[in-house]
Design a protein that fits this description.
The protein contains 19 helices and three strands. The chain is mainly α. It has two domains: about 280 residues, no CATH class; about 220 residues, no CATH class. The chain has a three-stranded mixed sheet.
Length: about 500
């Protein structure tokens, strides 16, 4: 199926543009809008992200009804023009990111530190980061992927260091490694441009088949993947992530954990499948040979490192590193079911990571607890909303039905068995057991018999109840929607949208 070209005067055809402009415009203009009333910054941010959710829902509906749309800005066609692709993968990921961001903002309004509560730049950075993530998801040329990736990254560095003190050290480390990733990515882009004369991915896809054995092309793809590997925190290039997420303000940690690495992985998926094609024989493409193995290593080592942590945020961060490996396994198997499993698990993991870091933030905010040992007996006095969300997230992370996590992992395993990649299937199972292991440690402390028990559970604020409840609902709802979501994801893969 060929993609429609953007040219319609209907509002529906402009939804991706509005999804980008809404947070970008409000982020850039917020210092002016709130110059006299900085206390309006949280409300403006909340309103903007709410609008994004509505636009994202409408955009997904349009894509499902009308099919993918290709954008050529300014009337310039490939290879000169800026290209966006609005397909079901982009629409689903943008909706996921928008919903998670909305819940993170609602949550963040409660747990935000006093020095950031009315900090206009803080909220402006959140919105500009959102615009960068949206642009990155829709971008269909290599240079603009870089531009939007760096917009999201630069704002991420600033948000990590927003608390000052030790956070600035970790933010600087994040910046240095992120800069290395950007440099490697640009080096890869330059190799591909020299070899092909274009950066538009649809144009590249037409030219690469005859150049796939070219050293320049192989080097270009390798450098691009290395650059994106740093951004997605793929082992052994993950060292920035645990420190960054632990030191980031509790109000933004869920947003960072659920979006930044996931969108970087989406960028690689676009490059891999638009340039090389769907259902590719991985063994025939040199740069893809090791991707599955890297995913296996990340899934196992990330899970093992999570198991030995004593700090909650650090444990959850390493768990996220493991799940990046699982997703990479799925999208690198070269078959439909593996790809669907990997992408579906990416969507679920974005929701679950947000939930985990919300839980960690609430525990720190109300109980001043950040380590496993300090959790002893907390389940007896913690809010039932907090306990229920922890249970649901754990079930999803372990991959038990009826959660979306189960169906994502199950499809990855089926894809691995179909490809006869039994080590990959083993890695998914082993990673699941490691995930079960570190959650078992958490619950052993959580429900530990306390020395003294308060009469009543602590009541948390309504915004937190809304965020935690919505996260739990989404984790279960995605399980029931797994068939429809995976079919929509595969539509982009097989019908020319990706």
């Amino acid at each position: 199926m060929k993609m429609k070209l953007w040219g319609s005067s209907k509002m529906s055809s402009h939804l991706p543009i509005l999804l980008f402009l809404a947070p970008f415009f409000m982020g850039v203009s917020m210092p002016i809008l709130t110059s006299k009333k900085p206390e309006l910054s949280p409300n403006i941010t909340l309103a903007t992200v709410s609008i994004m959710v509505v636009l994202a829902i409408l955009n997904l509906r349009v894509v499902l009804l009308e099919g993918p749309i290709e954008y050529a800005f300014g009337g310039w066609s490939a290879p000169l023009g800026i290209a966006w692709v609005n397909d079901s993968i982009a629409a689903i990921v943008v909706l996921t990111i928008s919903v998670v961001s909305l819940l993170s903002v609602i949550y963040g309004r409660v747990v935000v530190t006093s020095e950031l509560a009315k900090n206009t730049p803080h909220y402006a950075l959140i919105l500009i980061m959102m615009s960068g993530l949206v642009g990155l998801i829709f971008a269909a040329d290599l240079f603009n992927i870089f531009v939007f990736l760096e917009v999201a990254a630069l704002t991420g560095y600033a948000l990590v260091g927003a608390s000052g003190g030790k956070s600035l050290v970790y933010a600087l480390r994040y910046l240095l490694l992120g800069t290395l990733g950007a440099t490697l990515y640009l080096l890869g882009v330059s190799y591909l441009y020299v070899a092909t004369g274009t950066l538009n991915m649809a144009d590249l896809a037409d030219r690469l088949p005859e150049l796939i054995t070219s050293t320049a092309v192989a080097a270009g793809l390798i450098f691009i993947f290395l650059g994106l590997s740093i951004k997605m925190a793929l082992i052994p290039l993950h060292s920035w992530l645990p420190d960054a997420y632990v030191s980031a303000p509790s109000s933004v940690a869920p947003l960072l954990a659920s979006t930044v690495t996931k969108v970087a992985l989406v960028a690689w998926v676009r490059i891999e499948y638009m340039l090389i094609g769907p259902n590719v024989d991985v063994s025939r493409v040199p740069v893809l040979v090791l991707l599955e193995e890297l995913g296996v290593i990340a899934a196992l080592i990330g899970g093992a490192l999570a198991l030995i942590q004593t700090d909650l945020k650090r444990m959850f961060a390493y768990g996220g590193v493991s799940h990046i490996g699982l997703i990479l396994i799925g999208v690198s198997l070269g078959n439909d079911i593996g790809f669907a499993g990997g992408m579906f698990y990416l969507i679920n993991d974005a929701v679950m990571q947000a939930g985990l870091f919300m839980i960690a933030g609430v525990v720190l905010y109300y109980h001043n607890v950040s380590t496993l040992d300090e959790l002893k007996g907390l389940g007896h006095i913690a809010s039932p909303w907090l306990t229920a969300t922890l249970i649901v997230v754990a079930i999803g992370m372990v991959g038990l039905p009826p959660t979306g996590g189960f169906f994502g992992k199950w499809n990855i395993i089926l894809g691995a068995l179909e490809a006869q990649h039994y080590i990959a299937a083993f890695a998914v199972v082993a990673s699941t057991l490691l995930t079960f292991g570190y959650f078992l440690k958490v619950f052993a402390k959580w429900f530990h018999h306390p020395q003294s028990v308060e009469a009543n559970s602590i009541v948390i604020e309504r915004g937190l109840r809304v965020s935690l409840g919505a996260i739990s609902f989404l984790i279960i709802a995605l399980g029931f929607m797994s068939d429809s979501v995976t079919q929509s994801l595969l539509a982009s893969l097989n019908n020319g949208g990706l």
